[in-house]
């Protein structure tokens, strides 16, 4: 059999064209006995770094290339040399970024170091006229092969055989057609034949390729010659640092050292020996690793905004602390510098900096103004087809009606996690059971089967939330660049490939909580005259704030407001004996809690709480003495993985760090298996019992997916503490800032309810009193005009600006004369009650009558309608704001609640172990899985008295999940359970609370008093139940 190498291969990194995963292509090429494989995705190197990794694992020589295409031309370009690779990156960048891209001229300009394969005769003639070197005529089985062969002989250019591969197996053609139809937004029946490749374009073995080219054996031989000529020893990974002001390495280091000591004096005052030693230790490693430029570039970026939060492992660096990149003292909090940087670390660490969300774009603009698109670009996200999108798009190309698609996708998504598999199913098993459960009729089983095949396919690039790469020279020599819709340059790699390629990523991220703190501090200064210096302010020792955190009173507080975190905080502190509470550091435990709330830690959380309350720290093995004392023997931080691996299994510091890193990656199975073997062997050789090894590995695996290092959690905890301080001492200003900046964990409705529970009076929007944003002062929370749905920001701010500059509005007519607005916008303000204060004796309908009366000239006078009823006003309120703001929404359900006599949330603790009935407004929900993979859900509800948490275990979840929707009222029956002094409800059943028309003559003056009377629940008198016992 004649040897053969596939040189034209598209993977699933050819957006909506290629089907085959890189791993599968490399595995098949190896099975075919190929010595090498090329990757030539369409107009990109989207999977280049991952391809090199997969090819090397299979012992293949990786050949990097791309198929460059335009509407009129196409050619395969292979990197023969490293210079050729750089030219390929430049070519692809121009293809994406230059609207006037000239295919033939641009390839001619950058062809040095590239091998070109094409059957494009016009392009070949133009290039051959300049030089015939490394030009080949591509022959592919099919009608075009004979004309291409004739052209090759006529021009005297060598032929090369390819199969223009788009999938690894012949039966993947249907998936290719599906992806093309989705990309072209057409149905399969209308999909043009020329929009797809041929069914035969799969990764054929050499014998089949030889059979297709019996008359051109040199075309097969040339594939091997080309493969041998191409560079294959790719060594991506050497760190490529940004350059600071074109300084030489020593100049940059000297500058960094001076700025570090200058900052140290600002941070510490006089410098202790410990501080000096730590600074010198870090500077030595930074100098050895060449990171001086990097620190100086980041410090310069940070100085663009006064309020930042440097986070991630960099917060373990005293150099970054002195440069004010980070704000947590690494000495005081015992932070592990080697997690950020150590002499053996091969990959570049990245620095994450949070800015207030509404200042972040300005910071990015400054970076690009300074470095330009030549040296800087954003990191990409590779957007793939999610499962719901795959269902919808597949159904569309099958021509299904939109209504049927919406209904079926909702049914499937609701059921997909409820099928009760004891182990992860294959696609066929999953589809079979789903078809039975939903009683699917044709063509839906086929549609869902195809959707499963389309799921997770690469669809398009988007911009990473904040990752920026800055290089010392031209970025287009390292990686192809495209432009986003906003005009920002973005590289073709996502963050993992970016890091693996050695490009140093700086994360410039938007953080809404920093804007919340900023806005609250401005409001406090305006209302009280107290100016709090963000940089110097450290509230961690404030007793009232500490107590708020212990109670879990943290709704609105950065990173610690979720139900899971508040529940953990309450459990941790509720049962802690007084002697332990007196010595336990609230900040340090908050840091631990921030790291413990992650998906895979559930088995260890309760043990952590028990040990923390006792102050105990059982040692797993003598080799771990002192390693996990701080966290009571429970691995909590990412660096604990490294420490345990080194202590228990003799990992080198580099291997231990790589293990920690692999746990966070998507493509980790093979590497993780190798590290598992190394860990078990190393620990066994050290005499560690098998059960201890198993337990420690299980704990290590709890870090899979996402987890945090201690420096990151400490940085977050510092912001959390500042948020909690503001909530505790300035609740109105704080909650106003939380709602105004949007994007919190809860809905605006939930935050308004929380404000009401905190004792704040809720004042509705008013054109003479409201700002655009919410405003808090003292014990009042004034809603902003931003809450009125149909009022755009420009109009709302103009209303405020006009009032500020020229005085309050005297009447509705005065408002209309001074501020230009559409009638529909004026109507929205009236119906929302925003004009009540300027209406005089006119009702809202009368205001609207005046608004429209002038537009009905020549018609009969319009009759003035009656005043709105209270029920109508409430309906308008919900329509205008999205929720009922003037009172708690449960007060609308007075009659059914009086009939039910539910237990108030504030009284749950009196019913531990008993079945009770409760009502609640659904605030938030979080889907979860049991250890056996069964779906369940945690929900948070509120009544007038308090929030409460409830759990729907798998059986109940399967029965009731279809009823759940946010901002709806429910009747819930369940058993009150207690854990570490905290009560939750284990739900037995759940249904919607039935509405009843409220009697207009029975207004609710004091909702909480009414609610308590309506419940009439006592420990000795169980509440009524709507279900049989």
From TrEMBL:
All copies of domain Polymerase/histidinol phosphatase N-terminal, residue ranges: 5-72
PANTHER family: DNA POLYMERASE III SUBUNIT ALPHA
Gene name for this UniProt entry: dnaE
Chemical reaction(s) catalysed: DNA(n) + a 2'-deoxyribonucleoside 5'-triphosphate = DNA(n+1) + diphosphate
GO molecular function: 3'-5' exonuclease activity; DNA-directed DNA polymerase activity
Lineage: Bacteria, Pseudomonadati, Nitrospirota, Nitrospiria, Nitrospirales
Enzyme class, spelled out: transferase
InterPro entries xref list: DNA_pol3_alpha_NTPase_dom, DNA_pol3_finger, DnaE2/DnaE/PolC, DNAPol_HHH, PHP_dom, Pol/His_phosphatase_N, Pol/histidinol_Pase-like
Record organism: Nitrospira moscoviensis
Name of the protein described by the UniProt record: DNA-directed DNA polymerase
EC id: 2.7.7.7
Pfam families cross-referenced by the UniProt entry: DNA_pol3_alpha (PF07733), DNA_pol3_finger (PF17657), HHH_6 (PF14579), PHP (PF02811)
A Gene Ontology BP annotation from the UniProt entry: DNA replication
UniProt keyword list: DNA replication, DNA-directed DNA polymerase, Nucleotidyltransferase, Transferase
Record region (Disordered): 999-1029
């Amino acid at each position: 059999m004649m040897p053969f190498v596939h040189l034209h291969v598209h993977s699933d990194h050819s957006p909506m064209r290629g089907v085959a995963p890189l791993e599968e292509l490399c595995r098949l090429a190896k099975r075919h006995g190929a010595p090498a494989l090329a990757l030539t995705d369409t107009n990109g190197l989207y999977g280049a770094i991952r391809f090199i990794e997969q090819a090397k694992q299979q012992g293949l020589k990786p050949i990097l290339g791309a198929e460059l295409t335009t509407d009129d031309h196409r050619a395969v370009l292979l990197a023969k040399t490293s210079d050729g690779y750089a030219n390929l990156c430049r070519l692809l960048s121009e293809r994406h970024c230059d609207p006037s891209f000239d295919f033939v001229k641009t390839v001619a300009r950058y062809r040095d170091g590239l091998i070109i394969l094409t059957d494009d005769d016009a392009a070949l003639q133009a290039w051959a006229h300049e030089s015939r070197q490394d030009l080949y005529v591509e022959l592919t089985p099919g009608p075009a092969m004979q004309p291409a062969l004739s052209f090759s002989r006529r021009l005297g250019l060598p032929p090369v055989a390819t199969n223009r591969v788009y999938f690894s197996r012949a039966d993947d053609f249907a998936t290719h057609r599906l992806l093309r139809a989705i990309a072209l937004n057409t149905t399969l029946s209308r999909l043009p034949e020329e929009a797809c490749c041929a069914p035969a374009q799969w990764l054929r073995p050499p014998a089949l390729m030889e059979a297709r080219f019996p008359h051109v054996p040199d075309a097969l031989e040339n594939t091997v010659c080309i493969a041998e000529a191409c560079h294959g020893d790719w060594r991506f990974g050497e760190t490529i640092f940004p350059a600071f002001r074109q300084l030489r390495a020593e100049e940059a280091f000297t500058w960094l050292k001076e700025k570090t000591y200058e900052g140290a004096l600002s941070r510490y005052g006089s410098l202790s020996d410990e501080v000096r030693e730590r600074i010198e230790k870090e500077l030595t490693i930074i100098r050895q690793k060449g990171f001086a430029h990097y620190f100086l570039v980041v410090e310069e970026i940070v100085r663009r905004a006064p309020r930042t939060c440097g986070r991630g492992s960099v917060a373990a660096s005293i150099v970054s602390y002195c440069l004010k990149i980070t704000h947590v003292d690494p000495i005081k909090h015992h932070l592990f510098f080697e997690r950020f940087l150590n002499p053996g670390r091969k990959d570049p660490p990245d620095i994450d900096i949070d800015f207030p969300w509404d200042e972040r774009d300005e910071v990015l603009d400054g970076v690009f103004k300074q470095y330009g698109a030549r040296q800087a670009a954003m990191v990409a996200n590779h957007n793939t087809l999610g499962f719901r999108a795959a269902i919808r798009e597949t159904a569309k190309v099958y021509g299904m009606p939109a209504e049927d698609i919406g209904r079926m996708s909702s049914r499937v998504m609701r059921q997909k996690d409820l099928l009760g598999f004891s182990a992860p199913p294959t696609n066929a098993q999953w589809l079979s059971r789903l078809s039975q459960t939903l009683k699917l009729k044709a063509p839906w089983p086929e549609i869902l089967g195809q959707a499963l095949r389309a799921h997770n396919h690469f669809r398009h690039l988007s911009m990473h939330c904040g990752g920026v790469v800055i290089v010392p020279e031209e970025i287009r020599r390292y990686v192809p660049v495209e432009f986003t819709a906003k005009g920002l340059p973005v590289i073709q790699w996502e963050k993992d490939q970016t890091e693996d390629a050695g490009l140093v990523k700086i994360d410039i991220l938007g953080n809404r909580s920093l804007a919340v703190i900023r806005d609250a501090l401005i409001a406090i200064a305006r209302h009280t005259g107290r100016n709090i210096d963000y940089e110097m302010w450290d509230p961690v020792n404030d007793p009232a704030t500490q107590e708020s955190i212990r109670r879990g009173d943290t709704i609105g507080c950065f990173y610690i407001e979720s139900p899971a975190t508040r529940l953990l905080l309450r459990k941790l502190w509720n049962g802690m004996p007084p002697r332990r509470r007196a010595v336990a550091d609230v900040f340090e435990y908050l840091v631990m809690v921030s790291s413990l709330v992650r998906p895979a830690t559930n088995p260890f959380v309760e043990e952590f709480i028990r040990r923390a309350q006792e102050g105990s720290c059982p040692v797993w093995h003598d080799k771990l003495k002192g390693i996990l004392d701080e966290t009571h023997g429970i691995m909590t931080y990412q660096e604990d993985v490294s420490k345990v691996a080194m202590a228990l299994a003799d990992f080198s510091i580099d291997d231990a760090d790589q293990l920690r890193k692999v746990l966070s990656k998507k493509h980790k199975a093979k590497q993780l298996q190798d590290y598992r073997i190394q860990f078990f062997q190393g620990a066994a050789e050290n005499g560690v019992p098998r059960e201890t090894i198993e337990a420690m590995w299980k704990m290590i695996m709890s870090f899979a997916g996402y987890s945090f290092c201690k420096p990151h959690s400490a940085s977050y905890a510092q912001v959390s503490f500042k948020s909690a301080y503001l909530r505790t001492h300035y609740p109105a200003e704080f909650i106003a800032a939380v709602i105004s900046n949007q994007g919190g964990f809860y809905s605006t409705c939930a935050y308004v309810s929380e404000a009401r529970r905190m004792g704040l009076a809720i004042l509705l929007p008013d054109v003479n009193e409201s700002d655009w944003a919410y405003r808090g002062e003292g014990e009042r929370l004034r809603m902003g005009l931003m809450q009125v749905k149909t009022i755009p920001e420009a109009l709302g701010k103009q209303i405020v600006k006009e009032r500020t500059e020229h005085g309050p509005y005297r009447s509705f007519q005065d408002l209309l004369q001074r501020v230009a607005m559409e009638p529909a916008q004026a109507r929205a303000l009236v119906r929302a009650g925003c004009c009540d204060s300027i209406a005089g004796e006119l009702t809202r309908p009368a205001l609207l009558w005046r608004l429209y009366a002038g537009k009905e000239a020549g018609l009969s006078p319009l009759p003035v309608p009656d005043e709105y009823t209270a029920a109508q006003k409430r309906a308008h309120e919900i329509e205008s704001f999205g929720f009922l703001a003037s009172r708690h929404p449960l007060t609308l359900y007075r009659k059914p609640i009086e009939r039910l006599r539910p237990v108030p949330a504030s009284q749950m603790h009196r019913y531990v172990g008993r079945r009770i009935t409760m009502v609640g407004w659904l605030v938030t929900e979080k889907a979860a899985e049991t250890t056996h993979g069964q779906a369940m859900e945690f929900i948070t509800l509120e009544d007038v008295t308090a929030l409460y948490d409830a759990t729907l275990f798998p059986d109940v979840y399967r029965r009731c999940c279809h009823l759940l929707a946010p901002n709806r009222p429910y009747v819930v029956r369940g058993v009150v359970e207690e854990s570490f002094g905290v009560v939750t409800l284990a739900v037995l059943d759940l249904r919607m609370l039935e509405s009843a028309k409220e009697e207009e003559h029975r207004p609710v003056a004091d909702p909480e008093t009414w609610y308590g009377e309506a419940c009439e629940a006592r420990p000795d008198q169980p509440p009524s139940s709507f279900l049989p016992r």
